[in-house]
Amino acid sequence: MRRGAPNSFQVFGQVNIGQTVAVVGTILILGRLDLWLYVPAAVCLIVALHFLPLARSFAQPQYWWTGGLLMALALVTVLSLAGGMDAANARALLGFGAAGILWATALHVARRG
Fold first, then answer.
1. What's 93's DSSP letter?
2. In whole angstroms, what is the distance from residue 2 CA to residue 34 CA?
3. Which of 19, 48, 79, 88 could share a disulfide with 71, CB 3.0–4.6 Å?
């Protein structure tokens, strides 16, 4: 069994408060700029970033991969939208891609601990 840092749950709380504030702020800013199309990718990026401090705190190195893959997916989605992909296909790409990454992470954690 991997051992996390003694303050893991404190870090978890702080990271999730930061994630919530970042998501709400991003939605407000992108909405104000009428860039609603990019909200899902921005939220994916924020969720990706939240995995990075948790990787060390909970001694779960696969969270580095989870965060990195979600960041790459957010970037691919933004570039696809900028390249002319319609919003529905971009949301499908992002949604199914993120689901696959998160399910793979959950299975990996469940099997390895």
1. H
2. 45
3. 48
